[in-house]
Amino acid sequence: MNIIACVKQVPYPDTPASAYGVDNVGKRITLPEDVPLVISPFDENAVEAGLQLKDQVGGRLTTISLATRPADSVIRDLKQTLAMGADEAILLDDPAFAGGDSWSTAHSLAMAIRKVGEYDLILCGLQAADWDAGQVGLGIAEILGLPAATFVTRIEPGDGCVRARCIIENGYDLLELPVPCVLTVASDEALTPRIAPLPGIIKAKKRKIPVWSASDLEADTAVVGASGAKTVLQELALPEFEGVCEFITAEGLDQAAVMLADRLRSEKIL
Amino acid sequence: MADHKGVFIYGEISEGKLAPVTLELLGIGRRLADARGEECAAVLIDRKADDCAREAIACGADRVYVVQDAPTEFFEGASFTAILERLCTETAAPAILLLGQTITGRDLAPRLAFRLKAGLVMDCVGLAIDPETRNLIAKKPVSGGNALATYALKDGGPQLATIRRRAMEPFKGDERRQGEIVNVPAGVDASEVKAKRIERVLEESEGPSIENAEIVVGGGRGIDSTEEFEEYITKGLARTLGAGVGGTRGAVDAGLISEQSQVGLTGKIIGPNLYFAVALSGAIQHMAGCSGARNIVAINLDENAQIFKFARFGIVGDYRQVIPPLIERLTELLST
Predict the structure, then answer these.
(1) What is the complex's ipTM, to 2 decimals?
(2) Whole-angstrom Cα Rg for chain A
(3) Most CB within 10 Å of its CB: which of A232, B29, B172, B269?
(4) Model pTM?
């Protein structure tokens, strides 16, 4: 099975809220320089899902990333996917890709997928942890005219098809889709990304990552990057915390618990 | 391209009634339509949409498009996209199309936006019409809720957005409101169905559904074990209060609760009157799911835990020591 996984690089998602700032001139979110850049968590789940399928039925896994951060750090993370077991990694990097939104990013990735050529399955994370847009995977499916399923937590290979377990409001659906198709992957214990083995890391270090530009993709520059975007970021703000917590203290926690219950009653909350 | 006009909302039906998010969609759809001086129409794709169409008019719609012959009984992304594509190009040409940030909306909205070559902003907490351009302005949390971004949608073609649960006010219902119900054939046959449903597994959860519960008790990674989660939360505080049970991403990852009980940016959005946050740090991704909670009570060992910034009442201490006397007192109070 030929599998392609799209990965995006984001600032470490568990960075404390106090580290965040906004720059409304540059229209960007600011973070201290020591906040590491990592593969977005759902995208890591997608890579893991791809590797599990490869382990099961054989085939190739190719990872693709569109550089929205310094190329050398994206290359480092792409090499991590190789170390985990991917067979090939491709970087899309071109000033023409800059300033894009979900619409233009999906177009760039779809064109790269077309250039890769052979694929049975395209895996994307449900949404990236930086802009939380949640559109690119389904966008790729639309552009390439492929069937798709979202909120996928398990994938079973079949004959000319895959079966995907998809989260619904109060349980899950098991869906069967013909291949090729696109699946957007959510998080699940079973998709915890594997630790790259040391030999894999050493081997990946030596690999050269191919870099594709907009012209390599024969991309229409009116569709990619800022010129292709359908939305314009106008303003960024930090959320405001509201309220002051009333700490309930007493001699012992027993007493505090009783006082809490009484307060909830006197405030007519209960 | 045709002159795009009017606001469409995609309605979801749950247990024979308009889903809460649909009422919120009608509320914001009505306001945006009024701001543009245009109509607000609801689209209902459901075999049993008849009863709900009247309700949609009472809740703000001028017109309801009812599709009762979709090729599948339940939502299926590819064929529902095709039905909506037809509605938005052949039947009408809406300027704005709003959906809920639900499992369905999160699947349908991106497909439809790319199909219609339209801009889309997902998970909005604020929507407005730019008085000059008449374009949609959409505000949404980004970076897991650590920042808020405001986007303007560009001219040309329809503009799409999904709205977060409990972020917008429903329209005050009025039974006397007049509107038109239009039955529209799906115009889409079984060949448009791409995903075949093999089975649907519903998980039974104890207590009321957390999305509609008045009281929710949530636990985090700080709960020691699955057994303790059950003892103190599920069969403890939650049972005493008849509350729904939720938890953080960390609690799901630690196997303390099921994925379906996760509250947060990537889980359920709750809006209870009272939320007990037990042994959870208050990570912004979790808080994004309970910003609708009116009163938060936090129990945490760490006095510097971020959850206390959101809480109205807090106790610094071990849940194992706080919850049993709390249950005892609550039981007394609730019986009077």
Answers:
(1) 0.92
(2) 22
(3) B29
(4) 0.89
